[in-house]
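Researcher: Quick test of sequence recovery. Tokens follow.
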């Protein structure tokens, strides 16, 4: 247990020492911050909270900053008009966490989160989550806001948006999610004519379900569906694990883009371990999978100086020939590693 805590501190201190908190609130930095908050939860290091707070203040507790609702968009975009695009909303997870840790609970910290999500819920659209990453970006935001407000609309709309995403991307035969509609089989295939499920893409969904189920009321009307999807993914993910403990970039076709990849692996380890910790996955069935995945993260992905390596660069699919090695790192990969490590710490602490 203490060794895992030491790893968390080594990794997070290394990252923060080399990277300013004053960066935009887009998905890559914001996904790191979800791991930073998990690191704070198990270490209690006040510098981690300060780093997150400095980032939130720099971004004025907002994602995309446009106030012209008539021009708000949710297709892919990095401009300030893309307020409704989930990659600009994952920051709200950390803002809500900081709000909950604040004794005064300053409403300004979650004002923009509420404004944006409540605007979405006021529209008739249901296709906000058109890519798998979006489930990690926003599903936990909605359950976190429900816990703060007790407004049932957050759960009703979550189901509506998830149902759309599920209808577009879920493969019931395999139990996994395509990254988006472009990759659905048989329209898209690997060179060996196999279904192509992108590791990090499914990692986002698996981690999102683990996070969301932890916050979702036990009597929520659609909890059984979310739990069913989580368990089907756990089964499929476990079957796709490589003997060395990692998952390839293309889950079912390791030859297509072979070798270790850390971001997808870390999200799978996090989801698997959190599911066991929370009593919704069988430890008898899945703890060995989590153990092997953690061994890869600790012994191969983690470098002596605290760098988290073998992180596939930003993208949307497995790419043959792409260089992913021990020097390949990124903020979102560090965040995923910290989530997995924190879940591992809690598992060991339970004994």
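Model:
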């Amino acid at each position: 247990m203490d060794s895992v805590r030491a790893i968390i501190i080594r990794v997070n201190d290394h990252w923060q020492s080399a990277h300013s908190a004053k960066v935009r609130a887009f998905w890559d930095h914001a996904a790191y911050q979800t791991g930073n908050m998990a690191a704070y939860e198990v270490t209690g290091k006040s510098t981690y909270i300060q780093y997150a707070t400095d980032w939130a203040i720099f971004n004025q507790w907002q994602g995309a900053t446009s106030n012209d609702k008539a021009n708000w968009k949710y297709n892919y975009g990095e401009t300030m008009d893309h307020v409704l695009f989930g990659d600009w909303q994952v920051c709200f997870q950390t803002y809500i966490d900081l709000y909950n840790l604040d004794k005064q609970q300053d409403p300004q910290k979650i004002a923009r989160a509420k404004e944006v999500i409540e605007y979405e819920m006021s529209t008739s659209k249901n296709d906000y989550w058109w890519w798998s990453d979006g489930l990690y970006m926003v599903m936990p935001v909605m359950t976190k806001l429900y816990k703060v407000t007790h407004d049932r609309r957050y759960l009703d709309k979550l189901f509506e948006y998830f149902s759309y995403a599920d209808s577009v991307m879920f493969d019931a035969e395999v139990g996994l999610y395509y990254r988006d509609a472009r990759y659905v089989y048989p329209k898209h295939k690997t060179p060996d004519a196999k279904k192509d499920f992108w590791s990090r893409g499914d990692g986002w969904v698996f981690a999102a379900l683990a996070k969301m189920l932890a916050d979702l009321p036990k009597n929520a009307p659609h909890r059984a569906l979310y739990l069913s999807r989580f368990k089907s993914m756990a089964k499929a993910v476990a079957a796709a694990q490589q003997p060395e403990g990692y998952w390839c970039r293309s889950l079912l076709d390791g030859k297509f883009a072979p070798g270790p990849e850390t971001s997808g692996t870390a999200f799978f380890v996090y989801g698997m371990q959190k599911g066991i910790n929370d009593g919704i996955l069988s430890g008898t069935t899945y703890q060995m999978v989590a153990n092997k995945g953690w061994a890869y993260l600790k012994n191969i992905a983690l470098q002596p100086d605290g760098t988290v390596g073998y992180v596939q660069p930003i993208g949307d699919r497995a790419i043959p020939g792409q260089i992913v090695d021990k020097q390949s790192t990124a903020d979102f990969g560090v965040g995923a590693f910290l989530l997995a490590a924190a879940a591992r710490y809690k598992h060991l602490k339970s004994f």
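The longest strand covers residues 170-171.
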